[in-house]
Write a structure and sequence with these properties.
By secondary structure, the protein is mostly helical. The protein contains five helices and two strands; from the N terminus they run βααβααα. The chain has helices at residues 13-27, 36-46, 66-75, 78-83, 113-136; strands at residues 8-12, 58-62. A two-stranded antiparallel sheet has the order 1-2. α1 (13-27) packs antiparallel against α2 (36-46), α1 (13-27) packs across α5 (113-136) and α3 packs antiparallel against α5. The longest helix has 24 residues, at 113-136. It is globular. The termini are far apart.
């Protein structure tokens, strides 16, 4: 595992749910995945198994092992597991596409749940990387002057 994942980060519960929404939509063959609201509500309600949240629904989590923990939660939600299966079940394990193939049927595609969990962890790592960079390059941050109006 890369050393950037060997650290703890502070995160809001809603940040996890927002990241899940982002990655389910980005990886879906459809504009909106089936049962998105139900997926998000179920996931949000199971986040208490991940860590102890404070009164502001914020917690410190360690990135190492987070993908595995998130994947365990995601795989416990039937609506999310359904997204991990193509709607068109065929006897073929795989098929090939090339640039001359007809446009693929989205019902033949699926969302890779483990990839969603990994991308959610990477989101947190990238956010922390950006914050660390900003903390060491504060001279590059422009803050507009606030002028009093009378």
């Amino acid at each position: 595992m890369h050393k950037r994942f060997d650290r703890e980060v502070w995160v809001f519960k809603d940040s996890f749910t927002g990241s899940l929404a982002k990655w389910l939509v980005k990886q879906s063959p459809y504009v909106v995945p089936d049962n998105l609201s139900k997926c998000l509500e179920s996931f949000h309600s199971k986040l208490d198994f991940l860590c102890v949240w404070d009164s502001a629904d914020m917690a410190q989590v360690h990135l190492k092992g987070l993908t595995h923990d998130l994947n365990m939660i995601l795989e416990s939600i039937p609506e999310i597991c359904a997204l991990n299966e193509p709607k068109n079940f065929t006897d073929k394990d795989f098929f090939f596409l090339d640039r001359y193939s007809a446009e693929p049927n989205p019902d033949d595609n699926f969302i890779d749940i483990m990839a969603v969990a990994q991308n959610m962890t990477c989101d947190l790592a990238e956010r922390e990387d950006a914050q660390a960079w900003l903390d060491t390059h504060s001279e590059l941050i422009s803050i507009p002057e606030i002028k009093e109006t009378i």
